[in-house]
Amino acid sequence: MQKINNKILLESIKFAEGEFLPLQFIEKQELIEEIVQKFDTLNNAQAEKIKLSDIEIDDDTLLHFDEPTEIIQEDISPQVSEKTISNWQETTTIDELNNSISGCMLCKFGETRTNIVFGDGNPNAEIMIIGEAPGKNEDQSGIPFVGDAGKLLDKILEAIHLSRQDVYIANVVKCRPPGNKTPTEVDFIPCLPYLKKQIELISPKIILTLGAVPLLALFGKGYQITKVRGQELKYNGITVIPTFHPAYLLRNPNAKRDVWEDVQKLEKIYQNIKSK
Ligand code: URA
Question: Residue 209's Cα: distance from chain center in Å?
């Protein structure tokens, strides 16, 4: 970041909302505090302490910003816990992997979760869907996407003639972040190897990522959901179609048209694969 002042800070917040901190559920005040904290850690003489009460962000800001301002770098080295689970890397089936991480306490979300939300659907599916993190309903049931966003996801699948039996659904983060806070990179680093192992074991032909977090988790910074949605990306040779998160659609129904285009693309690719 070249210059830090209120204007750039505001853009950073907007960028954060649209890019890798979409913060669909987070209180805006919490978001602002988080960003300000990051500024504090920069210890940059130019950084001005922000009066939180002066800042207003509306929900649709991400749509108004084309060029993101670079966000503050964090130390994201993995936290190695004493309770690291020893044998999950050697597992050869989804059930084995699920069982082997059932006591995971690698991150602080383990302390507050009710259930680990590992994944759901068909372990032999050719389509894998990756969301962000479980919410309250998922935490209670242990099943991903069972709340309002999940109901919308079911409808989206139905519209392209698919059901949960045709896909495998997982999240980047397996335990509910308290307050449904959108996970940051720091939050998902301990959990990400589990997702990567799930992808390896499911071995899907197509992945549909929902929202900014799985995009960041699989591709790193530089892939903005608003810019790359609907494009065909590749992750380890697997076709990835990024689209908006259903929770975002619940708040921004106008984006449904985009998602409809994206999933139609997915359906076409899937039909092509099946016809071979
Ligand atoms: N949102 C997600 O990203 N995942 C869920 O399982 C539920 C809501």
Answer: 8
**Rounded to the nearest 5°, which phi and psi values hold at 132?**
-95, -70
| Alpha-carbon span 20 to 8, nearest angstrom | 17
Distance 154 CA to ligand 1 centre (A): 12
Residue type at 46 in one-letter notation = Q
Tokens, residue 215:
């995009």
Residues lining ligand 1, CB < 6 A? 117, 131-135, 138, 144-145, 147, 149-150, 171, 247
pLDDT per 10-residue tile (average), the chain, 276 residues: 38 39 41 53 37 39 35 42 67 96 95 98 98 98 98 98 98 97 95 98 98 97 96 98 98 97 98 93
* Domains of the chain listed by start with CATH number: 8-46 (no CATH), 88-275 (3.40.470.10)
Atom of ligand 1 nearest to the CA of 143: 6
**Half-sphere exposure (Cβ direction) of 213: Cα atoms closer than 13 Å:** 32
pLDDT of residue 85: 62
**Cβ proximity of 120 and 157 under 8 Å:** no
Write down the pLDDT at residue 35.
Answer: 54
Exposed, middle or buried, 64 (CB in 10 Å: 0-12/13-18/19+)?
exposed
What is the SS3 assignment for 104? coil
Ligand 1 midpoint to CA 183 (Å): 11
